[in-house]
Amino acid sequence: MNEFSLIKQYFTQCGESRDDVLLGIGDDAALLQTQPNSSLVMTMDTLIEEVHFPSSTSAADIAHKALAVNLSDLAAMGATPAWFLLSLSLPHSNEDWLSSFSQSLARQATQYGIKLIGGDTCKGPLSITIQATGMLENKAVLRSGAQLGDHIFVSGTLGAAALALAMLQNKLDKNDDFESFQQALNLPQPRLDVSQIVKHYATAMIDLSDGLLGDLEHILKASDCGAELFLDRIPMPNLIHQIKDYHYVLSGGDDYELCFTVPERYIKEVKQSLLAQKIAVFDIGNITQSGLTLYKGNDKQTMDISTHQGFQHFG
Ligand code: ADP
Ligand code: MG
């Protein structure tokens, strides 16, 4: 049983149904109607040592990533960050570690205007859980709104974090770009800049945490449609072309870029709005009726993607 069927079977029906739950389990975050014209957006993510980050990761980088992955889920809904809770399980209370961790956490929290309002602390294996809440005045951008003919965009380079992880695990030789790949792995930048513009145009959106194909599949399932993608349009580090191992970009994970769909009629406008903020996005394909096809280049030669599953716990 994988992560998603486990959640579906055991948790989707839990509790009394309530009119104020606009959207529960199944998207990047839950949506709660608290006032007539605004809703709360709630998400939660855990980082566990050796599962989500190597033991060698610094306290500052762990704090950064723990908050960034939550902010990324808020971005994927089109929400504005507001509050977060922090649950810490620590093997010991090392003051140097805590000082670096808390300073890094505070730096990013201030940058994105989100406030720590509570949490929990206990002794145990190193694990960090953050529950973040955002606000939304307009409609949320769900996974379920993609329409036939929409263009599929990603907000930045994919695969760098997965390359760094492979290098740290000695599965790949380190090259001159290792430092920058490691930065992508440890210091992902939640794309609220992209989200705040794109939310006015996108029909569907998700953040890329588990790999492009697996996460896009969530949009396709929720929207009951298919997609065609063009490998040569997906931005990726040169090294991936050199080693011709595309799983880093297709299913590597930890990218924390946004993937979103935009109807043809809005494309010019959305690109102009992004460009005005000096933000580049990449048109990597289109929504189709069904299936998922990956073309190698414009000659329409297809690539077998059956081996490129997204990351799944218990997968
Ligand atoms: P993401 O990758 O965007 O963080 P996940 O894949 O972790 O999302 O989760 C998918 C959906 O399942 C989300 O709506 C999440 O809130 C929900 N979910 C995950 N684990 C649980 C759980 N133990 N109980 C209830 N809902 C869960
Ligand atoms: Mg997500």
Keywords, separated by commas or semicolons:
six-stranded mixed sheet, binds adenosine-5'-diphosphate, binds magnesium ion
Shape category: globular
Radius of gyration: 19 Å
Alpha carbon gap, first and last residue:
7 Å
Spell the H/E element sequence.
Answer: HEEEHEHEEEHHHEHEHHEHEEE
- In total, the number of strands is 13
**What would the average pLDDT be, to the nearest integer?**
95
Characterise this structure.
- The chain is an alpha+beta fold.
- Helices cover 32% and strands 26% of the residues.
- The protein contains 10 helices and 13 strands.
- The strands form 2 sheets. A 7-stranded mixed beta sheet has the order 8-10-7-11-9-12-13, sandwiched between helices. Strands 1-2-3-6-4-5 form a 6-stranded mixed beta sheet.
- Helix 3 links the parallel strand 4 and strand 5.
- Helix 2 runs parallel beside helix 3, helix 2 runs parallel beside helix 6 and helix 4 packs across helix 5.
- The protein is globular.
- The termini are close together.
- The model has no long low-confidence stretch (mean pLDDT 95).
- The site of magnesium ion has 6 residues, from helix 2 and strand 8.
